[in-house]
């Protein structure tokens, strides 16, 4: 038994925000309520959460754990340790591994590795098409049986509207969401950062914002045709958000996520340093502000990291040549508190929702602190000062633009299935 | 005027005073080009690496000539023979070159920012000889030297740049430099090569897709090379370019009568420029080439630790 006492429980799924203790028995939550000490908790291990927020376990809808295939950059073990340091209790790993997770044996490999070595829950996402090549349907039903929670060809969009239609029809019948990396390939090709004043000044080839929104428009249209759940990954453009908002107004099952780097940085921050190179690229200030508004008002459903580790050798090259992607687990909550709570844009409960019940809904799951629920909890502070050091990261990779950044508030402990898997050293 | 920078990466970061200083220093080397014995011993014992990761003839020979005339030894690296073809990273390649103890490295690279990337990782001075679509600062300086020679000043001129602005590192270096002297810069060319964001690059820029309008009253006309590899579908058929943007005598006549006509080379006669314009007295094409050597001598000299003014007045040293 583990008793989390003296904390402030913030549970958006139940609209609860107040002092409460949480008693865990085994891997489940047994009781939630004020002052549990005296009663049932006799003999329980105690975790004093004074001054801390006790939230449902954070879910990351979008990460790359690189195993199998690129273990020098990350493994399921190292990636999930970094996730635990970031307060995440479950992470959804994208299928663009080597080999691609497009069949049940790869899915099972990932889950077996996770069972053996992962610090937090790993929920694999399967490829929509074989090899994510955009030609033929992957073995989605078999992967679902093995344990995938969604399908995507992430890294690129599902290649054609016709294939997308088939994927969506099939995914709907299997009750899986389709996650789209929305990007028009013809407008994207050759680009390394967002097109705009900075790309023109730096002489870096630009990707226009509409490269994303054109594809979001297509995806929403195919959603109307099929009725499948569509989730727009790492959305960066104001226009895309408008399309998602409109789809929601029409009652379509469309959701979207935004990454911490997109709601924190803009294309104006880009310098000749590949730690600022990711896809979608950092957007304009106008886009960034629209994303912040969407995060605050419910237009955006989830914060997802798009944690994309790369080895130092692969990133320490000319900007043009570097692979896209930045790491993100450990800085996600600190950045969200900075951009949303400390700035006054949103209440704390909204940020918790974006990390918990928001992403859970996308997956058709629930996330709440209640008796009988899995004992996955994220404990964090909203005010302690700390500095992120990439060199001390649990990830095997260091490719982050936030190295050395100071934060106010961040994860303090991560509890998965009743076990404290990470706790901040004080 | 003090000399405050270690590298020459672009004209954007230079101040007006620094540019004036570099032009003054370059003038000291101009004289040497006219003497029968052009070689100095100023950099004897020093060596320059010319690391050209992108093919180049004129800029590489210009830097090699400049280094040779200063008495420096030259080490050449060319893309086709370089270890990058074998998969070595840029940073490893340049660190290997640095380990041979050169005093300066001149780099040309197809990736914008490659010189900045290596400048952060090497202890020796880095000279940008053209990076991607970004900058070509010695071209900017030699253009400024040429303009100031012809017109007697750089301040407050009307400058028109014509062509593929989007992909031109020459345009960016010229714009940053000339803007600091209060020039009004009109940019003209096919719309797909003329991003409106260029207007925000520096003060005093005007975007004018209609070439005739852009040319009216110009003191300086800079015709950019049409990068023929870009003249293909879906960009623009060559005949369309010629029809709207080729610099013809009639179009040049819209500029001021004493306007100078510049081209960074290599020039494609009959495409971006009418041969009659290329060979007209207004054309400064060959002066630009000559001035390029002087500018590069000045830069090599200063960045390898030469004291400003030491070479002025210039005189050849027998070897």
Short note summarizing the structure:
The complex is a heterodimer of chains A (426) and B (319). Chain A has 14 helices and 21 strands.
Tell me what the structure shows:
The complex is a heterodimer of chains A (426) and B (319). Chain A has 426 residues and is of the alpha/beta class. In chain A, 31% of the residues lie in helices and 22% in strands. Chain A has a six-stranded mixed sheet with strand order 3-2-7-19-20-21, covered by helices on one side. In chain A, a hairpin with a 2-residue loop joins strand 20 (406-416) and strand 21 (419-423). In chain A, helix 4 (161-173) packs across helix 7 (210-226) and helix 7 (210-226) packs parallel to helix 8 (238-249). The longest helix of chain A has 17 residues, at 210-226. Chain B has two domains: 16-135 and 289-303, Rossmann fold; 137-283, Rossmann fold, CATH 3.40.50. Chain B has helices spanning 16-33, 58-69, 90-99, 114-119, 137-151, 169-179, 211-215, 238-245, 249-252, 275-278, 285-303, and strands at residues 47-52, 73-78, 104-109, 126-131, 158-162, 184-188, 205-207, 220-223, 260-262. In chain B, the strands form two sheets. Chain B has a five-stranded parallel sheet. In chain B, strands 2-1-3-4 form a four-stranded parallel sheet, with helices on both faces. Chains A and B meet through helix 6 of A and helix 4 of B.
């Amino acid at each position: 038994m583990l008793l989390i006492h003296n904390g402030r429980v913030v549970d958006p799924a139940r609209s609860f925000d107040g002092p409460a203790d949480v008693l865990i028995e085994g891997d489940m939550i047994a009781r939630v309520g004020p002052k549990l000490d005296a009663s049932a908790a006799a003999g329980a291990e105690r975790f004093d959460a004074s001054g801390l927020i006790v939230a449902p376990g954070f879910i990351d809808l979008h990460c790359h754990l690189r195993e199998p295939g690129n273990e020098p950059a990350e493994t399921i073990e190292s990636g999930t340790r970094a996730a635990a340091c970031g307060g995440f209790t479950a992470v959804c790993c994208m299928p663009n591994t080597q080999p691609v997770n497009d069949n049940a044996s790869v899915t099972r490999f990932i889950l077996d590795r996770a069972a053996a070595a992962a610090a937090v829950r790993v929920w694999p996402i399967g490829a929509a098409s074989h090899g994510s090549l955009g030609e033929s349907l992957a073995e989605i039903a078999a992967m679902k049986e093995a344990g995938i929670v969604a399908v995507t060809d992430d890294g690129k969009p599902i290649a054609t509207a016709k294939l997308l239609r088939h994927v969506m029809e099939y995914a709907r019948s299997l009750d899986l969401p389709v996650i789209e990396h929305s990007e028009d390939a013809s407008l994207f090709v050759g680009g390394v950062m967002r097109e705009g004043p900075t790309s023109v000044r730096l002489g870096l080839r630009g990707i226009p914002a509409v490269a994303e929104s054109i594809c979001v428009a297509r995806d929403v249209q195919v959603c109307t045709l099929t009725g499948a759940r569509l989730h727009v990954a790492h959305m960066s453009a104001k226009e895309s958000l408008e399309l998602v908002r409109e789809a929601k107004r029409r009652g379509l099952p469309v959701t979207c996520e935004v990454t911490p780097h997109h709601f924190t940085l803009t294309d104006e921050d880009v310098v000749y340093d590949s730690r600022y190179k990711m896809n979608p690229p950092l957007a304009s200030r106008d886009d960034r502000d629209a994303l912040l508004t969407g995060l605050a008002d419910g237009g955006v459903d989830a914060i997802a990291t798009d944690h994309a580790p790369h080895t130092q050798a692969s990133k320490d090259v000319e900007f043009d040549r570097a692979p896209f992607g930045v790491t993100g687990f450990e800085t996600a909550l600190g950045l969200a508190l900075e951009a949303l709570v400390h700035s006054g844009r949103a209440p704390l409960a909204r940020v918790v929702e974006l990390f918990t019940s928001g992403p859970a809904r996308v997956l058709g799951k629930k996330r709440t602190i209640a008796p009988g629920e899995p004992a996955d909890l994220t404990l964090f502070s909203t005010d302690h000062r700390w500095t992120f050091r990439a060199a001390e990261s649990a990830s095997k990779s260091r490719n982050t633009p936030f190295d050395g950044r100071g934060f106010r508030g961040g994860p303090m402990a991560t509890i998965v299935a009743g076990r404290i898997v990470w706790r901040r050293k004080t | 005027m003090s000399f405050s920078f270690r590298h020459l990466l672009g004209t954007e970061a230079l101040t007006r005073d620094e540019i004036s200083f570099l032009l003054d220093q370059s003038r000291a080397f101009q004289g040497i080009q006219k003497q029968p014995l052009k070689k100095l011993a100023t950099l004897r014992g020093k060596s320059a690496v010319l690391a050209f990761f992108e093919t180049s003839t004129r800029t590489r020979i210009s830097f090699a000539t400049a280094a040779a005339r200063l008495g420096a030894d030259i080490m050449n690296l060319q893309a086709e023979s370089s270890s990058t073809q074998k998969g070595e990273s840029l940073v490893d390649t340049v660190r290997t070159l640095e380990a041979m103890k050169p005093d300066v490295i001149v780099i040309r690279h197809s990736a914008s920012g490659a010189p900045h990337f290596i400048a952060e990782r090497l202890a020796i001075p880095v000279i940008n000889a053209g990076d991607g679509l970004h900058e070509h600062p010695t071209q900017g300086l030699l253009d400024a030297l040429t303009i100031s020679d012809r017109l007697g000043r750089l301040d407050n001129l009307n400058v028109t740049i014509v062509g593929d602005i989007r992909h031109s590192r020459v345009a960016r270096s010229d714009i940053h430099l000339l803007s600091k002297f209060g020039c009004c810069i009109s940019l003209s060319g096919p719309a797909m090569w003329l991003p409106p964001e260029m207007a925000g690059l520096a003060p005093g820029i005007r975007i004018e897709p209609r070439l005739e309008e852009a040319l009216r009253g110009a003191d300086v006309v800079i015709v950019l090379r049409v990068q023929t590899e870009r003249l293909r579908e879906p960009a623009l058929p060559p005949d369309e370019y010629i029809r709207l943007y080729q610099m013809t005598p009639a179009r040049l006549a819209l500029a001021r009568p004493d306007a100078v006509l510049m081209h960074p080379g290599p020039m494609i006669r009959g495409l971006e420029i009418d041969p009659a314009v290329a060979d007209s007295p207004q054309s400064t094409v060959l002066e630009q080439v000559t001035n390029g050597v002087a500018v590069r001598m000045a830069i090599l000299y200063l960045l390898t630790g030469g004291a400003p003014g030491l070479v002025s007045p210039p005189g050849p040293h027998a070897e």
